[in-house]
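Long-time lurker, first post. I've been practising inverse folding by hand and with some scripts of my own, and I keep getting stuck on stretches where the structure tokens seem ambiguous. Below is the full token string for one chain I'm working on. Before anyone asks, I'm not after the true native sequence, just a reasonable design that respects the backbone. If someone could post their per-position residues I'd love to compare against what I wrote down in my notebook.
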């Protein structure tokens, strides 16, 4: 190692850093001047303007930085400018993207003066939990241990799920609802400047999660039947893409992608992009070309499949869901998962419920949505009763 040369190079870097600081100060002074012109001391540069600045820089850059690196650097610069503008105002600093989140609003569960209400907005199971679960769940037994924390990672339920679905327990991560497992993916893999792809008319949590981690939504265009296609998904992929969230079947459109289409996407997708296939309604689909197994995980390293006990299993009130992935991805997800995130009662009920729904169950076929190709399986309670 040539120490002299190293010292010279380091000194050059120091000089450049000083220049960058001077340039940033100069830039901030201009921004403040713009604020004075606009007679505003805050939000001088809004998100639309920032996006234009970013687009221009991305177009002109000659450096070989990746797009997400440039976006990340400039977001920091914008943030620093904002702080300079607000120098006299003590403010609580939030992550900037948090201000863009519209808090998720659940559907109403009651209406004044109406007794007979059919609530459809949250896609709950209107038949209630399986009588089998009610029969097998000894609430007293579960409650008697309420002073103890639950198992730290729900090992018993994961073992049960592993044996029911013929997968490895190390590939399963539990969540407080499958919502939480969707969030784990973004927390583990995304940061400011990254892009997350999801449908324009999809589950609202995808755009909320995107903002939580400071990433940007890239919306998949749908066809006239509100269906996303292999091409419309792949068209949105850029070097900054980290995750694709896809509800299959989709809520609220009821459309779905067939096994062969998911296969095609995964074969064409760069391996550093993770596809999160949200199977909240997987148990309801009866179409032959739909894959409600976990076999994609055996074929592809970059997929996370989510499932929930909230819908077909009728246990929404317990808030328990899970995801299945490679053990490597599961390990990353476990790093952002809080210990004890699935509570004792939820674990207890889900363990009893786990074996009682199966793709082989006979089904009723009720169409949902207009032109929706998805058929609703289930009435599994009836099926259960028939079998017992
Ligand atoms: C597409 C989709 N994914 C995930 C969820 C979340 O379900 P949970 O968090 O109850 O498992 C829902 C709930 O409505 C949904 O519609």
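-- Answer (accepted) --
I ran through it position by position. Result:
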């Amino acid at each position: 190692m040539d120490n002299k040369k190293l010292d010279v190079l380091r000194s050059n870097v120091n000089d450049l850093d000083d220049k960058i600081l001077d340039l940033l100060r100069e830039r901030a002074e201009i921004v403040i001047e713009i604020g004075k012109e606009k007679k505003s001391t805050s939000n001088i540069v809004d998100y639309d303007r920032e996006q234009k600045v970013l687009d221009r820089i991305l177009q002109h850059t000659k450096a070989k930085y990746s797009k997400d690196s440039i976006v990340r650097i400039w977001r920091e610069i914008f943030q620093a400018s904002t702080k300079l503008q607000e120098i006299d105002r003590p403010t609580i600093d939030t992550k900037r993207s948090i201000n863009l989140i519209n808090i998720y609003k659940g559907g109403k569960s009651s209406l004044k003066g109406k007794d007979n209400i059919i609530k459809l907005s949250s896609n709950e199971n209107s038949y209630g939990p399986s009588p089998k679960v009610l029969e097998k769940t000894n609430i007293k037994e579960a409650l008697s241990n309420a002073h103890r924390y639950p198992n730290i990672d729900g090992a018993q339920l994961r073992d049960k799920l592993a044996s029911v679905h013929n997968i490895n327990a190390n590939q399963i991560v539990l969540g407080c609802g499958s919502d939480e497992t969707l969030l784990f993916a973004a927390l583990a893999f995304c940061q400011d400047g990254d892009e997350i792809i999801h449908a324009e008319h999809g589950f609202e949590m995808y755009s909320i999660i995107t903002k939580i981690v400071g990433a940007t939504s890239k919306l998949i265009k749908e066809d006239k039947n509100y269906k996303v296609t292999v091409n419309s998904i792949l068209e949105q992929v850029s070097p900054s893409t980290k995750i694709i969230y896809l509800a299959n079947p989709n809520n609220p459109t009821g459309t779905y992608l067939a096994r062969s289409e998911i296969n095609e996407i995964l074969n064409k997708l760069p391996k550093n992009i993770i596809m999160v296939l949200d199977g909240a309604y997987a148990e309801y689909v009866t179409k032959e070309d739909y894959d409600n197994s976990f076999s994609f995980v055996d074929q592809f390293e970059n997929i996370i499949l989510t499932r929930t006990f909230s819908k077909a299993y009728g246990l929404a009130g317990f808030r328990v869901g899970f995801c299945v992935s490679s053990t490597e991805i599961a390990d990353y997800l476990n790093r952002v998962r809080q210990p004890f995130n699935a509570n004792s009662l939820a674990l207890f009920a889900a363990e009893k419920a786990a074996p009682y729904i199966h793709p082989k169950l006979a089904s009723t076929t009720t169409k949902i949505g207009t032109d929706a190709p998805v058929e609703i399986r289930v009435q599994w309670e009836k099926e259960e009763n028939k079998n017992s």
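A couple of notes from the structure itself: The two ends are 77 Å apart (CA to CA). The longest strand covers residues 241-247. Happy to go over any region you disagree with.
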